[in-house]
Design brief:
With 449 residues, the protein is of the alpha/beta class. It has helices at residues 2-35, 49-60, 82-88, 105-116, 155-177, 266-288, 293-308, 320-334, 346-355, 361-369, 386-395, 430-446; strands spanning 40-44, 94-98, 120-127, 146-151, 199-207, 210-215, 218-223, 235-239, 242-246, 313-317, 339-341, 375-379, 401-407, 421-425. It folds into three domains: 2-178 and 266-286, Rossmann fold; 187-246, SH3 type barrels, CATH 2.30.30; 292-446, Rossmann fold, CATH 3.40.50. The strands form three sheets. It has a five-stranded antiparallel β-sheet with strand order 7-6-5-8-9, with no helix packed on it. A five-stranded parallel β-sheet has the order 11-10-12-13-14, with helices on both faces. A four-stranded parallel β-sheet has the order 1-2-3-4, with helices on both faces. The chain starts with a helix and ends with a helix. Mean pLDDT is 87; it is low at 77-82, 135-140 and 258-263.
């Protein structure tokens, strides 16, 4: 397994050293598209469908307090359908396509249709290791405004590199939003709050139930009935001429520590963003080097023993971790093992959440579905989700093998009595935690071979 970590280190470093500048350019294009009212529409070919869902969660539900939710939708059960994209997409939207294997016709077909519809197109796919890496190599001549190839033959490694890349795109979008005048075009003639996305602007004049806000040299009057005690100097989150709430402008420093102050030169900002992207790659490399490979091997052997005896792997999590659970279950099924992801049953999840409480959604499913000899895998970045705690307490002591994969210090998951295996990614930045958790999941299944 040590060689597998080294392979990942090489793949991540080589990809980001080559593509960091292009990623910054792609993200600037996304920031402009969002500013004009565009919606992100991700698509994943085959197993990459869970990555498409993951990308939607990241953009729609930012984990950084004060950052705007960006419009993103994942088409239904058949996102390869041309009619589905045609019904959903509008010119100016953003198409993000992902594939873990080179030459996937669904990947190139999605991008072709998106380009024909006038969308900004971004593609992540694989290229054969050891050969020349260019836009046509092993991609069925896929074309996109921004195309990124991971030169590796292992789809698990490709997925992990791509996950870091689309996480960085999400992080960088918010950095560009925070730089006045760089994402907007013709800002002096624009309506500040007219787009699909709420924006933050400073109050320069307060007038009872209205205020004048200013952003990047443009001024607009907004209604302030929903916000108490608005004063000059406040920062308001506004949309469609209405102030929604006061916000404390949060610096992007903890995302990109050396992006300090307001940047007025786009080239300088792109250079710093490119450099900081390389830092992100090195961070995830460092975290992966700390994985307890012996513990992973022991857990993988225990999982294999249960599966050989007829047990099922049952995975679950919330938000991005729900898509990681889907990915784990899909990978197990691809290897011929029985597996389910509890989040795949939204009717049951929403029924239990509505009638009993969200903290019971997974415990109720485990109580009905799990049997002695099965494996329950809980995935959480915080380790503190009440519904995961309840589920693992339900499973513990019932003959079910319990595996928890958490971030930070393990949180409350680490304190569940009778937990069989615990893996902690010791970091507090959710994207990096998720990227290393993906590696742990992949290595656990490699141990079942």
């Amino acid at each position: 397994m040590i060689d597998r970590i080294t392979e990942r280190e090489t793949a991540v470093r080589s990809f980001f050293e080559k593509e960091s500048g292009a990623l910054a350019q792609a993200c600037l294009a996304m920031a402009k598209a969002f500013t004009r009212g565009g919606t992100l529409i991700p698509f994943g070919a085959g197993a990459a469908a869970t990555d498409a869902a993951h990308a939607v969660v990241e953009f729609m539900h930012p984990v950084i307090v004060g950052k705007r939710a960006l419009p993103a939708i994942a088409p239904g059960n058949d996102p390869t359908s041309h009619s589905t994209l045609a019904r959903l997409a509008r010119p100016g939207d953003i198409a993000l396509a992902l594939a873990h294997h080179p030459g996937d016709p669904a990947f190139s077909g999605f991008l072709d249709q998106a380009r024909a519809l006038g969308l900004l197109t971004i593609g992540f796919t694989a290229a054969p290791a050891g050969g020349p890496v260019d836009a046509g190599q092993g991609t069925e001549a896929a074309e996109a405004d921004h195309l990124f190839l991971v030169a590796n033959d292992d789809p698990a490694v490709v997925q992990e590199v791509q996950e870091t890349a689309y996480h960085v795109l999400w992080e960088l979008v918010h950095v560009f939003f925070d730089q006045p005048g760089l994402a907007e075009e013709d800002a002096t003639d624009a309506c500040i709050t007219c787009g699909d996305v709420a924006v933050t602007a400073e109050v320069i004049e307060a007038r009872g139930t209205s205020a004048v806000i200013e952003k990047d040299g443009t001024r607009e009057q907004v209604a302030t009935e929903l916000v108490e005690d608005v004063r000059v100097g406040d920062n308001l989150l506004c949309h469609a001429g209405v102030a929604l709430e006061k916000v404390d402008p949060e610096p992007t420093g903890f995302l990109y520590p050396f992006l300090s102050g307001t940047k007025t030169d786009l080239d300088d900002l792109l250079a710093e963003v490119e450099s900081s992207t390389l830092q992100k790659a090195e961070q995830v490399i460092g975290l992966r080097s700390r994985i307890d490979l012996e513990a992973v091997a022991r857990c993988g052997a225990a999982i294999r023993e249960r599966l050989d005896a007829g047990g099922r792997l049952i995975a679950f999590g919330n938000g991005g971790s729900a898509t990681d659970a889907q990915d784990l279950a899909a990978d197990a099924l691809a290897r011929g093992w029985p597996a389910i992801a509890l989040g795949n049953d939204p009717a049951t999840v929403t029924a239990v959440a509505n009638d009993v409480g969200f903290e019971q959604v997974f415990a109720r499913q485990l109580a009905a579905l799990a049997r002695p000899g099965d494996i329950a895998v809980a995935i959480s970045t915080s380790g503190g989700s009440a519904n995961l705690i309840a589920a693992m307490e339900e499973a513990s002591g019932s003959g079910i093998l319990t595996v928890a994969i958490a971030g930070h210090d393990g949180g409350r998951l680490a304190g569940v009595a009778g937990l069989d295996h615990l893996f902690v990614v010791p970091d507090d930045h959710i994207p990096r935690i998720q990227e290393v958790q993906a590696t742990i999941c992949h290595l656990l299944l490699e141990g079942t071979r």
